[in-house]
Amino acid sequence: MNINLNPDIARERLIKKLRDKGITDEHVLEAFRKVPRHLFVDGAMYAQAYDDNALPIGFGQTISQPYIVALMSELLELKKDEKILEIGTGSGFQAAILAQFSRRVYTIERNRELGETARKRLRSMGYENIVFKTGDGTCGWAQFAPFNKIIVTAGAPVVPQTLSDQLAIGGRMIIPTGDRKNQCLSIYDKTEQGMEYHSVGDVVFVPLIGEHGWEK
Ligand code: SAM
Hints:
binds S-adenosylmethionine; Rossmann fold; alpha/beta
C-alpha cells in the first residue's frame, strides 16, 4: 500500500481490515484513526506503515502487527479512568493507542535508545498522559502499582509473579507466554480468589528479556 499518495486513505483501509478481522471496539478503531503509524517507523518504511504487518524498529525489535495491537487493546476492555502498565515500549505506538482512552499509561522499555526515541516522539506529538521508564519491565513499576490493566508486548516464559502482584483486584493482564519464538496470548483476570485464565490464540513476539523473563 503506497501511503505517499494519501495516508488518510491508507489508514481507513487498515481500519476496514481490522473490522473485517473481528475488531469491534469503536474506541480502539477510533484510536487507530488518530495515531499516525507512519510516524512510528523509519522513513524508508512509510509505504508499508499501514499494511497489517510487524515492521523492524532497530536493535532486532519490532513495532507489532496492527491487528495484534488492536486485539490486545480491545481485550483490555479499557475504561477512561484507568491506569495501565505496558511492558515493552518499542516504538511507542501501542502506548499512543492506549493513551487515547485511558487515564495514564506507564510504559517500560529495556533498550535505552528505543525508549528514549519513543519518549521524544510521543512528547513531540503532544502526549501528556504517558510516563516512561528505561529498565527491566519484568519487575513492574511498584511505585505506581496497583494497575487496573497490564499489557506485555514481548513473549514471556511464564507470567512474572511481580506483574501479578502489581495488578489490582478486578484488573486484567494480557500477556503472550510460551517459548522464545512462539507464544499463546492469554488473559488473566485477578479476583479475590486468585487469577482466572483464558487463552486467546497463538502469536509470535520477540522475547521478554529480564530477571523474571528470558535470559539475554
Ligand atoms: N509495544 C511496542 C510498539 O508498539 O512498538 C512493540 C514492542 S516490541 C514487540 C517488544 C519490546 O519489548 C522491544 O522493544 C523490547 O526491547 C522490549 N522488551 C523486551 N524485554 C523487556 C523487558 N524486560 N522490559 C521492558 N521491555 C522489554
